[in-house]
């Protein structure tokens, strides 16, 4: 079912095209997208044994309820709800919020795959944070799992896709309105993110600017503090301290490694191409979770520790399965 990973390069090209990117950006974006497609193609041909992680289901269930509990705990600490009063989002504990994402997305997908319909409460609960990204990630991950499950069973109907897309749009627009933003701001965001990528491609140089430090900041900022990756993007653009800017999927990689970002694009595609063949429920949960982060990352980039950890777990399972296959 290679069409789902291919959504990422397709959506990326559509995003920067709608954002009216400069010709040089379009050329670099095309090279990046093609490298991802090649990675998916080569990855799908790799044979491996999927043995998952061997984690008992009860621990995954606990992880799910811990994630939901953290959300409720943060509401109690704030004595308010960010979805109702968005200004208080900055008071959320970033480490607890990150733990919510790391535990909540894969555990909800796993439980959904196992027939536990209460897993659907996660994206609606995490919406209380008033951030669009985690809501979209949760819905896309669950939607992808549902889509492939129905397709495997031959029961996929057109209205299923329409309903899933409708829920994502309604919830995304609902959060936008509750945050006091105009619908037009979404279009402005596409254009501004593309403009950021234009500046990065023009100014970073063919070998990049941060040479790996920007993506490393996605780990360091969570553990030790300091500039976040999106804070470093703002610093590169000479924007005042305290502001964060999303660089698109390519932007962060290009700021680090310039034209060599196509190698990261190939490796990302290779990962998706291999792991899309997962059969173990835990591995499939990681696949759908990282797939969702990749799709949303078209605009936000893949630059956060919780996301890195999910990719690392998926890659560990794949590499171990590849070694086992070679030994057999």
UniProtKB/TrEMBL annotation:
Protein's UniProt name: Oligosaccharide repeat unit polymerase
Domain of life: Archaea
Transmembrane residue ranges: 31-48, 60-78, 98-113, 120-146, 158-178, 254-274, 286-319
UniProt keyword annotations, A-Z: Membrane, Transmembrane, Transmembrane helix
Native source organism of the sequence: Thermococcus cleftensis (strain DSM 27260 / KACC 17922 / CL1)
């Amino acid at each position: 079912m290679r069409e789902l990973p291919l959504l990422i390069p397709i959506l990326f090209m559509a995003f920067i095209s709608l954002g009216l990117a400069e010709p040089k950006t379009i050329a670099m974006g095309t090279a990046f997208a093609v490298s991802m497609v090649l990675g998916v193609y080569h990855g799908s041909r790799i044979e491996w044994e999927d043995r998952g992680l061997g984690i008992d289901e009860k621990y995954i269930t606990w992880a799910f309820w811990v994630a939901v509990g953290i959300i409720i705990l943060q509401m109690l600490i704030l004595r308010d709800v960010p979805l109702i009063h968005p200004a208080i989002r900055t008071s959320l504990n970033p480490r607890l919020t990150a733990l919510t994402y790391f535990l909540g997305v894969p555990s909800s997908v796993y439980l959904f795959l196992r027939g536990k319909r209460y897993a659907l409460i996660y994206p609606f609960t995490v919406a209380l944070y008033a951030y669009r990204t985690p809501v979209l990630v949760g819905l896309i991950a669950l939607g992808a799992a549902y889509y492939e499950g129905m397709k495997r069973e031959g029961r996929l109907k057109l209205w299923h896709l329409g309903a899933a897309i409708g829920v994502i749009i309604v919830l995304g627009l609902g959060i936008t309105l509750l945050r006091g933003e105009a619908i037009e701001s979404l279009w402005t965001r596409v254009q501004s993110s593309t403009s950021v990528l234009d500046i990065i491609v023009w100014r970073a140089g063919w070998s990049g600017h941060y040479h790996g430090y920007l993506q490393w900041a996605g780990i360091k900022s969570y553990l030790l503090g300091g500039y976040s990756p999106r804070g470093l993007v703002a610093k590169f653009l000479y924007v005042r301290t305290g502001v964060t800017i999303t660089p698109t999927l390519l932007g962060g990689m290009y700021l680090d490694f310039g034209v060599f970002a196509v190698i990261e694009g190939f490796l990302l595609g290779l990962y998706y191409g291999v792991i899309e063949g997962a059969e173990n429920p835990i591995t499939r949960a990681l696949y759908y979770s990282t797939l969702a982060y990749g799709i949303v990352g078209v605009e936000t980039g893949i630059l956060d520790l919780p996301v890195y950890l999910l990719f690392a777990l998926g890659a560990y399972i794949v590499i171990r399965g590849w070694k086992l296959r070679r030994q057999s």
